[in-house]
Amino acid sequence: MKRFTVFLFIFSFISFGIFAKSGAIDLDKVIDFQKKEVTLGEIFNTLDDNSIPIIYSPDKITLDQQIRLSGSKLALKDVLSLIKDQANIKIKSNNNHIVFSQGEFRKYTISGTIKDQDNGETLIGAQVYVASLRDGCISNYYGFYSLQLPEGKYTIRYSYLGYENQLCEIDLTSDLKKDINLLPSSEVLQEVVIHGEDTDRIHQVGLNGEKISVNRIKTIPTMLGEPDVLKTLQLLPGVQTAHEGTNNLSVRGGSFDQNLILLDEAPLYNPSHTLGIYSAINSDAVNNMEFYKGEMPARYGGRLSSVIDIRMKEGNNKRFSASGSLGLLSSKLSVESPLFDKKTSFILCGRYSYAGYVADLASDLGEAVGFKDLYENFQKGNNVQFFDLNFKINRKLNDKNRIYLSAYTGKDQFYFKSFSDKMNLNWANTTSTLRWNSIVSSKIFHNLSLIYSNYNYAYKLLDDSRKFLWTAGLSEYKVKSDWDFYLNSDNHIRYGADLSKHNFDPGKVEPRGENSNTKSLKLKNRSGLQSALYVSNEQKIGARWKAYYGLRWSFFQGEVKGLKTINFNYPEPRLSLGYDISKNISLKTSYVRTVQYLHMIANSSLGLPTDIWLPSAADLVPQKADQLSLGAYSSFDKGGYEASVEVFGKKFIDIVDFRDNADLFLNENLSQELLKGKGRAYGVEFLLKKTKGNTLFWLSYTWSKAEKKIDGINDNNWYPASFDRRNSIKLTLTQKLSKAWAASANFVYSTGSPITVPVGIYQYQNASFIQYSKRNAYRLPDYHRLDISFNYNSPNNKNRKWKSEWNFGLYNVYGRKNVFSLYVKQDAYDLTQQQAYQIYLFTFMPSVTYRFKF
Fold first, then answer.
1. Residue 284, Cβ neighbours under 10 Å: how many?
2. What is the pLDDT of residue 261?
3. CA–CA distance, 459 with 475 (Å, rounded to integer)
4. At 407, which helix (H) or strand (E)?
5. How crowded is the C-beta side of 256, counted as CA atoms within 13 Å?
6. What angle, rounded to 10 degrees, do the helices at 40-49 and 76-87 form?
């Protein structure tokens, strides 16, 4: 496999060289001037009419100079030679442009930071575009941009979705630092939305990167009226949910532990609150999110399937502001403000859920009105609640240096009697990130980060005899250094390194009370040291080609306390090529190799906080995946339509699954219950969007297949992976009804997920035992659901300091009982009898949410 990887990487670079050559300007192209006596200005106009990209400064070149041609039809290279000889002009040709200069040829760099004019937030991914050169760049994660241009006068356009464009006239005669403040185009409450870029966008090389920004309202129906960035991702093709009411994502056939979720660069191990009713990400704290499911940049590593990179807001450095919401199950409040001399700002976001109290009230209401279903679904005595806090503070040290400190903490308590009256779960996430970024020069940007992440979880069994408390957790400490080098306008080089220390507590159990028959037991702690080096380049090749190529080399040292350490290291090449057929049509392809050194051992796809995380070891080697993708993309100027189709194939290597009848709970020899094998996933994804006008929609369809083949399971034959969903359809529609009202609807459908079910019962010594089917041989019923919502935003909001809006929603309109879990329970009085039960969480659920901002 290593030889195959090296061969493929070499082949990719050879192919890249061929593509690069084909993207260069054709110097043999014949140009028809129609006469032999022409001025230099007429030559430039003719070259431009023939789509030959040229650069010159009109005030530094005499355009009325006469040039005598040797014929009216000449090859481009001959025309350039005549100009050079007769006009004494210096000419420089590269893959993108032909540059004309009278005198010494010079290039200078314009750089700076792009921010929101109202609150000082840096704008990530803002566009910088020079129309006369058909060239530009985008701002990085800290709003910094750098663009190298030939000496001359230019009009530069700065733009960002939801903001007014800003045009700047510059005379570039030396390196120039220019900070930009963009004005928001509307004063409305903000909500997380997926958006398409403008049709004249500067194409990014990444094949499958989706950018999600917090800008303008695009009402997306969500459960209980709570905007949720992770649930928004579930509307994209190739992204599946593990189950009803969960935020665990399966991306292109991968399991949910194969997604790298970063909050200000810190990994978040459990992204869910309250069994997935909410995610752990408070949308009010989010500035930007980027999602990669195909091409994964070399700066990311450690997971096989996807990256979800979430960046928190920095805090309003202009004035104090606050926002929040009141809902049926939760409320939240955010405050942000400058401090001291306005070189420091902070943001604090808090959220609290009182779902257990609401469930108890619903039970009382059902009993009072005689509504049996309501009473049975919401039994009294629930303890379901959570809180989370996001905090970030930053300080501008000077024009070139800034420091940031961000933190997150969240905790859940879950005892829901309708789900189980014998089980109590709780879990908590904590992260913090200290960052220092520096503008080293107009071309070099550096960021240094110190990162901490902790996840701990507990399971209480309330059975009278086995009454116990089980706890487990893991923590991570990381230092990373990232560099951006803007070599020129055609090459953006990134390089860096990171080092992480992982500590794992696989679990311990302790009795709760004197009547418990449980004995104390603790598994051995484990640890791992992970590091990586990476380098990559985003390159423009000619007017139509773009490439991203990079290499990540990762290292891991695993250790079980008291046992011998083991070392791993793997190259992880990345390559993406893009070709613009026209302004609105492009083709892209990518290859990526990923390696994952952490394993989550779970016997269900629910993602309950009882799953065990373990590092790679001698008997648990790292997982690996190779993925190839090919896509075609189109946008249309009229109507704001965008369409895409992508085909992907993914090969999994050294993935694990548990053997039949495995004992996973507090097993000191857990690795003996696991088997190693391979997997594959492939499919096709379609997406159609309308992103402008009063009617907006996204329609996606995915056909995909995900399988595993592991010796010792299913007679050594291929079997469906737990996240294999053959068909998936998702439709989101938003209609503006008036200046104040908008209506939205979501419809989702997917094939039922595979499941292993009991197919018989056999008797042994007066007890019954279950005979299960082959692995994942059956499927749950198909999943489908319709949600609707109505949003009221007062037209008078623009003239008020206090701005507010109402959201009214209905989740699962027609009350579909989608299966959450299936289990078998033995009869308490007759041990020869067993009964299968299925659990569903939600039928229809209304919501009312009041949002405010001042």
1. 26
2. 94
3. 19
4. strand 401-415
5. 26
6. 160
DSSP SS3 for 766: coil
Secondary structure (H, E, C), 353-396: ECHHHHHHHHHHHHHHHCCHHHHHHCCCCCEEEEEEEEEEEEEE
Q: Is the dihedral of CA 212, 692, 629, 538 positive or negative?
A: negative
Distance of CA 742 to the CA centre of its chain: 27
**Dihedral sign for Cα atoms in the order 253, 257, 262, 263:** positive
Place of tokens 């390696």: 595
* Predicted local confidence at residue 594, as pLDDT: 96
Tokens representing residue 426 in the block: 């709780």
- Per-10-residue mean pLDDT of the chain, 854 residues long, equals 46 43 67 85 85 76 82 84 78 72 77 91 89 83 90 88 88 90 68 45 48 53 70 86 71 91 94 79 88 90 93 91 89 92 92 82 73 64 86 93 96 76 84 96 95 91 76 94 92 95 89 79 88 94 87 89 79 93 88 94 58 85 94 83 93 90 75 88 93 86 94 91 91 89 90 81 68 83 90 79 88 83 63 65 80 88
Strands (E), 69-221: 73-75, 90-93, 98-101, 107-116, 127-130, 135-138, 144-150, 152-159, 166-172, 176-177, 180-182, 192-194, 210-214
Rounded Cα distance between 80 and 25, Å, is 13
Tokens coding 542: 């000619």
Is residue 246 within 8 Å of 332, Cβ to Cβ? Answer: no
For tokens 């464009």, the residue is 165
Count of residues for the chain?
854
Residue 229 has which token pair? 């960035």
Radius of gyration of the chain (CA): 29
Between the CA of residue 275 and those of 239, 350, 385, 404, what are the distances in Å?
19, 19, 11, 32
| Residue 826: CB atoms within 10 Å | 16
φ, ψ at 76 (rounded to 5°): -55, -40
**How many CA atoms does the CB half-sphere of 829 hold within 13 Å?**
0
816's tokens = 């579909």
Strand partners, 181: 115
CA distance 53 to 490: 14
Write out the two tokens for 617: 């070891």
Q: Rounded distance, CA 156 to CA 490, Å?
A: 17
CB 607 within 8 A of CB 272: yes
Q: What pLDDT, on the 0 to 100 scale, is given for residue 564?
A: 67
Token reading at 455? 């996840």
83 token code pair: 């100009």
What b/e string do you get for 664-673 counting C-beta neighbours within 10 Å, with b at 16 or more? eebbeebbeb
pLDDT in the model for residue 373: 63
Q: How many other C-beta atoms can be found within 10 angstroms of the C-beta atom of residue 416?
A: 22
Residues ≥6 apart with Cβ < 8 Å to 18? none
